[in-house]
Design brief:
- It is built from 15 helices and 24 strands.
- With about 475 residues, the protein is α/β, with parallel strands linked by helices.
- It folds into two domains: about 270 residues, Aldehyde Dehydrogenase, Chain A, domain 1, CATH 3.40.605; about 190 residues, Aldehyde Dehydrogenase, Chain A, domain 2.
- About 50% of the residues are buried.
Length: about 475
Amino acid sequence: MTGKTSARQMLIGGKWVMCDSVIEVKDPQDHSLIDTVPAATARDACLAVEKAREGAKIAQKMSVHERMSILNRTADQVEEEKERFARTIAREGSKTIKEARKEVFRCMETLRISAEEARRINGETIAFDQMPGNENRIGYYYYFPVGIVTAITPFNDPLNLVAHKVGPAIASGNAIIVKPASATPLSALLLAEAFIKAGLPPEVLSVVTGYGSEIGRNLVTHPYVGKVSFTGGLHAGTEITRIAGPKKVSMELGSNSPVIVLEDANLNRAVESSVSGAFSAAGQNCIGVQRIYVEDAVFEDFLDQFVQKTLTLRVGDKMSEDTDMGPMINEDEAKRVELWVDEAASGGARILCGGKREGSFYLPTVLTDVPEQSRLFQEEAFGPVVSIEKVSGLKEAIDQSNRANYGLHAGIFTNNVQKAFYAIRQLEVGGVMINDSSDFRIDSMPFGGTKSSGVGREGVKFAIEDMTEKKVVCFNI
């Protein structure tokens, strides 16, 4: 893909519009210019909310079969242009072309799941006569849309994470405003085009491109907005929660995901899964493997196999079919990871492979003996770095896993079902993957975490619950 995409305008209330100022979208691999998008202003953000009020009225009146048809037709549109979508994801972000194609497939699945869940937004009858004096009362509750959803999405899954917010919003009869990451806005704009082609009333969806510092506050604090759905970093999420006011808020704020490998595990499976989980998308993955705790009896064997497998990864041109890992999203992020690794090494950590940066590329890096006080232990690295540590058994592994102030996903490799269930009960996370790394998710499951990993759950059905309210109806007959 050498030419520019056509996604140069943003969508506000059904109209494709430009701004005086633009954001340059550059390929992080070689810093080449891909395209420009509008740098929206605070006024543009307020206009998007005003237009979304009209869209919310339209969306609420749409029948379930209309919502389902639009979502399925949009998925079909994406499928028809799947290579264009994949190449856009790969060019503007960090994913290899192979990884990008997988994201396009997941986007289609997310939209089709949203269509299916639209038919399942059901309430329940209520036995009002359970209290004396209410023998003549009958009733029920049903779900109604919150009206306007603001969705703020990150760079690492620039298509599917947009679909995870837009699909449930439309399925549940809401209007939605998407603020995509300023580094990767093109995929979101392509998806908006697909929705319009599929027949979505244009007022229902806005995609406002711009910097969070300029437009974020208006999109979050506006009193007409009924729900804010944010995926991103802890600092930004904390600030959004503070300023949002009395509205529904869901936050997916990342993690520092542990994996436990016990002596009875299938080591080949554990190595294969954990290497993939640590280094896919250049490690820029909220459920990517960051810490691995290995029982002492198999520690050396696991460590050797893991390092050898890591050294086979091919790092380079992300558009090549042979590449396993591309660059990070920008050079500043690669420098940050470099700094954290160097700090850990200065504190006593041993670098077993990697530990080198070239521009935006940071080699897949494996460490051991990482000090607990280091940022690499405590924070979300969000890069191609993993630490592997020896533990005496399951209890120590769980204690170490729970030390970080995050709790999104964890993985455990064991053939002992009792130990698996013990880990399920004791790990302070939103999801435990047995004989898989932490980096496993399907788009219909509840997805979210504990502690600093966020509030609420995504996954289509569960996002719909957060984008609706319950209304009680009671008849006195």
